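Give me the fold.
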Amino acid sequence: MYGWLIVFTLSVPNVTPAANQDGLRPVNLRTDLSQLADLIEIAFADTMDHHGRAAVREMRALSHMGGLTSLISVNNELIQGMGMGFVWIDGGKLVGNVSVYPASLPRGAARIFGSTWMIANVATHPDYRGRGIARRLMEASLDSIRKRAALMRGGNPRAVAILQVEEKNTPARQLYETLGFRTERTWNHWKRSSMSRVMMPRQDSRIYISRRRRSEWRGEFELAQRIRPAERGGIGWLRPTFPGLFTASLWSLLSDLANLRSVEHLVIRSEDERAVLAALWIENALAASSIQLTLMVDPDYTGLYDDALISYAVRRFGASSPLTIEHPADETVTNALLARYHFHVQRTFVNMRWET
């Protein structure tokens, strides 16, 4: 088992190979969904959450649609995502899978970072592991990404693949490294329940938290470049560090409005107010089950400004909504503070990257 993620994209395979053909072949939506559901359920039994289980149930339901599956997939993101991948067949049984689909990067990022694709659901049935199936699936995926990138016109011609793998999954990480992937950064995914006790913040008159001015986006961007450089995974998963992430375009404003979503930027400035020394993003949406936080602090102020911002978020939202945050595992002081404020690590992922 090589890390899992139920995928979303817009594609259907161009070929329809025989369902019982042994070895490597593209996914066939009309014949593979039921066995794919079984494989994913078995391979990711230890890490699958309720969203994953719901996706598996949906795959099984759609597998009974027969020839209608391709038609339904036009409006079904789950099935569209599965359709770009590859499977491995042994004796007529589907025993391996990988999904490949376009990464949902912020608008404008592709021009800077190249054609970026996500690899997910890399799975081999437990009875067939150790036979090189995952390697063959990954090699086919990377070859597919090369070809897709070559067909794209304009922008950056570079082909990029990204994936997430559980930190403790050493065999998978070693496989990806031999295929040319490099580790960007390891991230802890924290969550705090709204039932947790709200801790009173420290009173420190020297610390002034305020909303970021529109003109201060460059200062916030410069802070991110120092501590969240793009080559180390940026702000987090699918959030590369580039100017477009720090300025609200008309497109993003309309998208936020349509999705009833809001992003609040809070900052702590230097005494002369020329630099942003710490930033907290608070992302909320009507349909979201939690409030998503993003925290960045100048290393010289770690242990002080991160404490103040975490305390602020907990005091303001902690009793009414769960809080989640994706934070670099190497920032040990901030991680200790999150634990002190009753955040708990849900998963630890290593973000990896491959490019031509």
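The chain has eleven helices and twelve strands.
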